[in-house]
Amino acid sequence: MKDVFVYPHIIEAEPAAGNKVKTLQKNISAEILLELNHRLTLIFGEELSGKTSLLKMLMVRFEKKNYIPLLLNGESISTVKSKQKLKDALGQQYELSTQTKYETMTGKRICLLDDFHLCKLNYEYKNRFVKELLNQFDFVILFSDSLLKFDDKIHAMFVGFKKYEILDLGYVKRDELIRNWCKLGVEEIISEKNLVDEVSTLTNHVNSIVRKNIVPSKPIFILSILQSLEISQANNHAISSYGYCYNFLISNIFERMKLKRGLIDSLINFITHLSFHIYKSGNRSISVEDYYVFKDGYEEKYLIPKNELDILLRSKILMDNGENVYFSHKYVFYFYVAKYIVSEDMSDKGLSDILQELCENLHTDKASNILIFLVHHTKKQSVIDEILLYVECIFDSVCEAKLCANETEFMKDILNHIPDLVIEQIDIDKERGVRLEVKDAINNIVDDQVEEEYERIGYSDIDENKFLSEINKAMKAVELIGQILKSRHGSLKINQLKDLAESAYSVGLRFLSFYLKAVDVFENEIKSFIKGIILNDADVDKDKISQKAKEFYLYLCYGLTKSLLTKISFSTGHSEIVSILDEISDESSDSAAIRLINLMTKLEFTHQLPKKYIKSLKMEFSKNCIATRILNEMVVQYLYLYYVDYKDIDWINKVLGIPIKPQIMIQFDRQTKLLQKNP
User: Fold this and answer.
1) Burial class of residue 566, CB neighbours in 10 A (0-12, 13-18, 19+)
2) Pair 229, 245: CB distance under 8 Å
3) How do strand 109-114 and strand 139-145 relate by DSSP bridges?
4) Are 137 and 85 in contact (CB under 8 A)?
5) 92-106 burial by CB neighbour count: b if 16+ within 10 A, else e?
6) pLDDT tens-digit readout, 71-123
7) pLDDT tens, 593-603?
8) Whether the predicted pLDDT of 265 surpasses 70
9) Mean pLDDT for all residues in the chain
10) How does pLDDT run across 417-457, given as a tens digit for each residue?
11) What is the per-residue pLDDT for 281?
12) What b/e readout covers 32-44, taking b as 16+ CB neighbours within 10 angstroms?
């Protein structure tokens, strides 16, 4: 699908020992490969990372440049003598019967070799074969499985040549792919505003499904999610809309294997029981020996094909490292664990016990994700009630933060240290791109190894710091309830949806209250700690250390407050439940926090400027400088990320008192005159 293709980001690949350094490297667009800066380039990529699609796109682009690319497949290379392989490829691609004719064609000759890791030659002859290709072609680009990057002999073979690794799609590339998807068939007629609105809506859905790499952010997965979202909108399903997307992804795996329906049902039942067996062991894998012990027990109750492991390994549902068998992707594992928990094989007592265990370990990714998948599989009110009951216990001794004037009094000095808001002329697409790049940069330095270690050791050793786990539980609870709201809004009653949203708001704001009280109580200790850090900076004026520490402290308070309001809004918001969230907001008129969360939801999920609501908040916050500042920032951020009419900009200027930069004012005056001439 060349219409939706995006060049993935790549980074320079290092030997295994230097692999961890990659997170500090700058992402490079794979389009740089068209520049042919290196005679020999080796590209590593995981399965389904888009290696072959990239190779084919490079071939098309090279042909348009009047170069002469030739495609070879590593799996077919079994001898260092390449002439016959070249002759066969020439016959297929250029209808040339001899290599001599190819050599006489004018233009840069480029060899694109796919699946280099499947080449049957040993190291010595692989080296000879690559040298032979360099003799035959001006440029050689090899594509290989990412496992080969851990092979020191391969790195030694390619010393002096360029090596890259294909990355999963980050926020920038994901946005680009979704944008291409939205333009399919309407590229010439879709307005910029409608395109941005549609991309934003789909991005929220995709991010809710992919989450923290639960689903690999690879092109084929993102496209499958987009396709499944279209299908799920037109059908009613027993599982939730997001649950349908996950099911769709797994079904695609089996369909690519072209298995019969009966065999698929048998395999699904087997992996459902296997996933729960692994879950109960407290691990993410099972030894090969234990796998066969489990299979023997399973065969006493159910039919299963004798070659089930071979099928599941070939389909990449399961993986085998020689010692252990494990699920290839987290979403497959979590999906089937949850499926088993709500199945007929689980008693009511067993379900209750499992729910309690999962809720108690909500601070871990494993437990929180299984709970999320549980609500995709079942409509049982008992499951939702158990979750809500547990969420009420998180920071239960703390009242919700309302962000009233006296509550935020201690941080109002922040307004003296941050610039006044001004409406500037912004390129919306560029601004959105910059923000996505920042998110990618943050994501690149997040170390997932801590969570992997948690999953390896299970739950028992993670509770050393109750304070941190309680914070994590609060945030996971907001995400969990948000998933229920987003994916079950069509099948739950209005009062259930309201209870869920209120619970998410409450736990998030209880944590915010706890945080604000803590930083207020420990203000001096925090400032002293910050001073100690600043003292290590030789460029800082020593006389201004106290002032800098105070500024940082205030940024810490204000920044987290605003970020948490945004987090709650993005986690719980959905266009279909705006009226329910409005009702909660109307009933919480004394809570500036809930009123601001609702504003963010309206802006982000309806893509409209709620003028009446904004005007009301302006009056409510007349004596609350912090709430007023957050209100103004939310509105200005909306202006920078979505297309807004000049009349709306003028309205914001007059109602909120945010000045407009001169160049925008000139454009606005011109627009006004045009409207007066052509009413």
Assistant:
1) middle
2) yes
3) parallel
4) no
5) eeeebeebeebeeee
6) 999 998 888 776 667 777 777 787 766 666 666 777 889 999 999 999 999 99
7) 999 999 999 99
8) yes
9) 87
10) 899 999 998 899 999 999 999 998 888 765 444 444 444 43
11) 93
12) ebbebebebbbbb
Return d(Cα 331, Cα 285) in angstroms, integer. Answer: 14
Query: Is the Cβ–Cβ distance between 328 and 360 less than 8 Å?
Result: no
The dihedral of CA 475, 198, 244, 436: what is its sign?
negative
State yes or no: pLDDT of 512 exceeds 70.
yes
Residue 619 token pair: 């009056």
Per-residue pLDDT, averaged over 325-329, amounts to 94
Rg value, the chain, Cα: 29
H or E element: which one contains 318? strand 318-320
In the chain, the amino acid numbered 463 is D
Average pLDDT, integer, range 271-297: 95
Alpha helices (H) along 315-465 = 330-341, 348-360, 365-377, 381-391, 428-444, 449-457
pLDDT single digits (tens) 227-236? 998 886 655 4
For 54, the token pair is 């990239």
Q: Compute, in degrees rounded to 10, the torsion defined by CA atoms 120, 125, 128, 134.
A: 10
In order, the DSSP letters of 524-581 are: HHHHHHHHHHHTT-TTS-GGGHHHHHHHHHHHHHHHHHHHHHHHHHHHH--GGGHHHH
Answer whether 143's CB lies under 8 Å from 113's CB: yes
DSSP state of 327: E
Reported as type and span, the H/E element at residue 597 is helix 592-606
